[in-house]
Amino acid sequence: MGAVKLELHCGSQRVDGIVVDPEPDWSFDALVSELNALETKLATTSTKPSSLNKTTSRGNEIERGRTFKLHAHEYEMEDTESEDDDVNDDRALVVAGKRITCDELYLSDSDDSDVMSAFEVQPYLMDEVEEVEGALFELTHEHQLRVKDEIRSKISVLESALVNESQNATSSLLRVEKYKTTRQELDKKFDTQYQRRIAEELDNHLTAVQQDRERRSQIEERKIRNDAANEEAKRKIALQEEKKQQEKAKAEAEAKLRAEEAKQAALEAERKAVMETKRKAAMEAEKRAEKETIGNSERVTSGATQQEAAGRPTDSASSLSNVETKKSGNVCQAAASALNLEHGRLQKLTELYERNQLIRSSSNKDYTRHENHIFRNIKTIRGSRDSVRSKASDLIKLLNDPQYPQSISVETFAKKVVSNAKAPGSAPFASAYVIVLVTSQVPHAMDILLAELHRVCPYTVPKHMVYKKSTFQSKEAYFKSIGYWEENGKMESTEDYLQRLESYVKMYAALVQTEIPKVQNLHGLQHGWAWLARFLNSLPANQYTAVSLDAFLRMAGFALFRRYKSQFLKMLNTISENFLVDLKSRNAPELRKTIAEIQTYIEDKMFLQEPEGRSLQTNLLSKECVVR
């Protein structure tokens, strides 16, 4: 609803420091009392009486008839239409022209200052009104008060309703929250039950799947066992057949060998008979010559006597020369024990070759694919434990394959291992690991492999052939005897031969020093120690033996020192004091590099450092193949 505001028709709203700011909801009696109080205050507190007489251009004439006006200002309301109606009624009362006259009150029009210049107060602020108008005003005032009371009561009712509604809304919200909480707990409970049911179903499903897998695994295992049993039966049958064939071949070979031995015995007996006949004839001729010499000694002239005397020393010199030739006919320098071992291994290799030749001639089966399979496994050996394990396992299976005679598989294995040793990218330590693992399952393959190695490289015996013109027809024949290759009628260079010789000795040295826990090396470190002792005791110091010794020390010196300690150091002292001295005495330019390498190896104590490649790279191999 609107409010009634009393405004003064003057230039300033402040008079002597008093602000005219009537309350908008004052009653008529309150307004009258307020005006009387204002009049009294102005009369008593005025300090400038002369200013009250100040006039404008019209002189000291007091302007009468000026009045207060009651105006109703419009305010934005948010109440109901009844409140708007009350405001309209108030505005109607104001518009009706009800004026409060102040005929005796003088208000100055001057704008010179904020304080009123003069203000005259009359005893009466209002004109006298009639009784009817006063009653009408009172009725109007009572009506206004009644309307206000009704409005206040309605507002109170509305406020109570609003409070009740707010309380109801709060209660409803609490009930909703409680329902929400209860519902969440129920949903959580249902979710837990559902998850538990899902877990149970999943567990049952997994159990069923596991049981099904176990059943399938059992079926597969039974199938594998049955297949293995069948394969084992087939293998036994094949082994029996192979054994029969081997026995047959052995019998044929023995028969052939006996025939050869009988033939050789006959030839030897014939040769001995011829030699005995020649010896007897020579003795008879010598006796006859002596008799003739004694009977005719008196008739021999002095010249003849001198010639005969000169002729006898010539015969003696010729005889001594023959003796020396026979003594120097042994061109092989090696320890007797090493030669005996070589002879036994080469004999086994020869017997194996003859047996395989009989098998190939008696059978139309092609073994090329099997041999290529063995060679591929050997060729792809690398210096990692995973490669060593897989290749050794595959080679053991191939050597024990019942579809192929084991003798042919072993021969192929030995040849391919030795052939692969000379390849530039070969890994001698990895190959040695494979050899030890394979020969631990197929023991007789070790002697065949060593015999093949002795055949292509005599320095692995160790053995050295001395060149003698009386023994070798030419230099080429000598080179062939120590392992030189001949291609297209041309002998290979010494540099190529020494490079291949070094590769063979490195593989042999890697083999003797390989030690695998729980796996027996049939040609272990004790054989490497024996090789070094025989080498230093029997072989001369030259270019071939120097290269062989350097390669052997670099591969096996680390393991030999760990095993033999001070004894190995004594060996090194022997090499420094004897072998290297002999090499230096030759004063050959091609020996300088090898001499420097051996001397550096000993002086720098390189035997304390583990050679590169000795420890396999990855950890995929089983613990049996770990280097200790």
Automatic annotation (TrEMBL):
Where does it localize?
Answer: Nucleus, Nuclear pore complex
What processes does the entry annotate via GO biological process terms? poly(A)+ mRNA export from nucleus; protein transport
List UniProt keywords, sorted A-Z: mRNA transport, Nuclear pore complex, Nucleus, Protein transport, Translocation, Transport
InterPro entries (alphabetical)? GLE1, GLE1-like_sf
GO MF: inositol hexakisphosphate binding; phospholipid binding; translation initiation factor binding
Keyword Electron transport applies: no
Q: Where is the composition biased (Polar residues)?
A: 294-308
Q: Which Pfam families match?
A: GLE1
Q: Where is the composition biased (Basic and acidic residues)?
A: 211-227, 278-293
Recorded superkingdom: Eukaryota
GO-annotated cellular components = cytoplasm; nuclear pore cytoplasmic filaments
Which stretches of sequence are listed as region Disordered?
208-227, 278-323
Q: Which family does it belong to?
A: Belongs to the GLE1 family.
Which protein, by its recorded name, is this?
mRNA export factor GLE1
Q: Which organism is it from?
A: Lotus japonicus (Lotus corniculatus var. japonicus)
Lineage of the species this protein comes from:
Eukaryota, Viridiplantae, Streptophyta, Embryophyta, Tracheophyta
- Corresponding gene? GLE1
